[in-house]
Amino acid sequence: MDGMAGAGVAFLGCKKTNGFDEGSQQSRWSAVKHLDCPGETSHQMENYGRSAAAIMFFCFVSLLLLSCSWAEEVSSVGKEPSVGELLERANRDRVPDADEPELIGGDIAVRADRNADPCTATGCLWLKYTDGKVYIPYYIHNQYSERERAIIERGLQSFSDVSCIRFRPYQNGDHEWISIESRNGCYSYVGRQGGAQTVSLSRQGCIYHSTVQHELLHALGFNHEQTRSDRDNYIRVHWDNIMNGMEYNFYIIDTLNQGTPYDYNSVMQYERYAFSKNNLPTMEPIPDPNITFGQATQMSKNDIDRLNRLYQCSKVEAVKIPLHFSHFLCGYEEREREKRQRERERKRERERDRRQTDRQMDVFLIEPKSRMQLTSLGVDHP
């Protein structure tokens, strides 16, 4: 600090500055007394040195904090791992608690009395309301930081931007809801289960926009892309490269594909080396093995189309917004609602004006004698 004080005196050019006068302690600042600054006492010089030292120290700390924030920003805009990589990494060494479910397919929770076969035929869709929207209560446990909670809420909101799905906060009286918790790993049940339905987003590796969307799509009734009923037409599975005991993750399910094509860019598609035991591919696209797949970091157009078709969202409610712009349009739904309200009010005003005009015309057409009678009764007429 003594060196910084001396440098600060030179920087200030021996001119008087405001503030930072902390007394007349001499012991640590004796060196500044010997500087030749005309018209200034040693005591004043000492105070200037201390002021400069404080300013320089503050600037140093500010630059350090700023550099840390820059580092975080740079890392956040770097290439995000694919959702398949994130899920496999988060669940690789998972040790579940006694009350946690068994997982299949990497992150699909199953109960002892159920399996992960298509649930849409047995009534696992969330209920639709008379206004055409699907309201799904959610509760985020208080295990998350403010930043983590913001990522989760952004993932919930992203469904409102592109479909009739509306995730809303839990309210007293709700008898079924999604309970978002930081348990062991990333996982979700497939479709509506009833009661408090856990979606686990562990703070250790699951708090990404892609994983939030992925697990919520499971909760809405969707399975993995690589288990589609028509998978073998688009993906060749290399069974010899799959980890022992993990083969079931690639078993085909009789899925409802909603008339959409196989999607290599689906957020539900795992990457090329998923569950590999020898660092060789477990999946290969056909007929072109060079196609990139399993690299999604958010829902694709086909993911959105399937969601809207499964829940029969109308074109009015399922507003198609490019997902990479959706986080700039958080107020879109509110603005549209206000716009529709204004249109309804204008329509009511026009209707009132029309009825008023009709009444005036009726009075105008009354015979003169009748009009005189109306006048005598004190009734206004044109």
Describe the structure.
The chain starts with a helix and ends in a 6-residue tail after the last helix. α1 crosses α2 (42-77) and α4 (146-162) crosses α5. The strands form two sheets. The protein has a seven-stranded mixed β-sheet with strand order 1-2-6-7-5-3-4. The protein has a two-stranded antiparallel ribbon with strand order 8-9. Helices cover 37% and strands 11% of the residues. It is an alpha/beta fold and 382 residues long.
Keywords:
disordered N terminus; alpha/beta; 7-stranded mixed β-sheet; 382 residues; 11% strand; 37% helix; two-stranded antiparallel ribbon; single chain; EC 3.4.24.-
Q: Strands, helices and their partners?
A:
Blueprint lengths: L1 H11 L29 H36 L5 H9 L10 E3 L3 E3 L23 E7 L5 H17 L2 E5 L6 E6 L4 E4 L5 E7 L7 H12 L14 E3 L45 E3 L15 H10 L12 H4 L5 H33 L3 H9 L6
Parallel strand pairs: 2-6, 3-4, 3-5, 5-7
Antiparallel strand pairs: 1-2, 6-7, 8-9
Helix pairs in contact: 1-2, 4-5
